[in-house]
Amino acid sequence: MNTRPTLRWLAAATIFLAAAVFCQADQLKPGDSFPKLEAQDQHETAYPMPEGTKHIAVSFSMGAGKKANAYFSNKGARFLPERNAVFLSNIYGMPGVARMFAMPKMQKYPHRIMLADEKGLLDDFPQEKGMITVFDIDDDGKITAIKTWDPANSEAPF
Questions:
Q1: Domain assignment of residue 75, yes or no
Q2: Which phi-psi region, left, alpha or beta, contains residue 7 (left: φ > 0; alpha: ψ -120 to 50)?
Q3: Does residue 55 sit within a domain?
Q4: Cα gap 68→126, rounded to integer Å
Q5: How far is CA 24 from CA 17, 18, 78, in A?
Q6: In CATH, what number is assigned to the domain containing residue 101?
Q7: In the β-sheet with 132-137, what is the strand arrangement from edge to edge?
Q8: Distance separating alpha carbons of residues 15 and 11, to the nearest angstrom
Q9: Do the domain assignments include residue 18?
Q10: 41-65 pLDDT, tens per residue?
């Protein structure tokens, strides 16, 4: 009996599991400082993280982002600033053709959207498929809580 394929499979499985554990260990968690971010908004204007931000809602996918944008649009342009909240949407990897259609649509939203458009920028952020990750931040910039939110089925957790 040849054990080489079994050993290769076992080695690959071990490397995969070790990588998964290692990646999870690096994710942001309560008590960590929230990373300093500077990005652009949907109008291609510089958008540094505002002083006094208490809540950061992060979208990792187009579907979740669309649901969040619909929710925030219905609440009006002042909803996020009045709650010291920021909406951060991942657009890294969006093909140029898709951007040609997505950016003009995003520019019509009444609320401001911080755009994550850099490789690896959100790698340390915990995420759940189809959900928005919401970070609560204290006055010192430390994460006090991390929640998930489905804007199509519940009120914003801030």
A1: yes
A2: alpha
A3: yes
A4: 17
A5: 11, 10, 35
A6: 3.40.30.10
A7: 46-48, 38-41, 114-116, 85-90, 55-59, 132-137, 143-149
A8: 6
A9: no
A10: 999 999 999 999 999 999 999 999 9
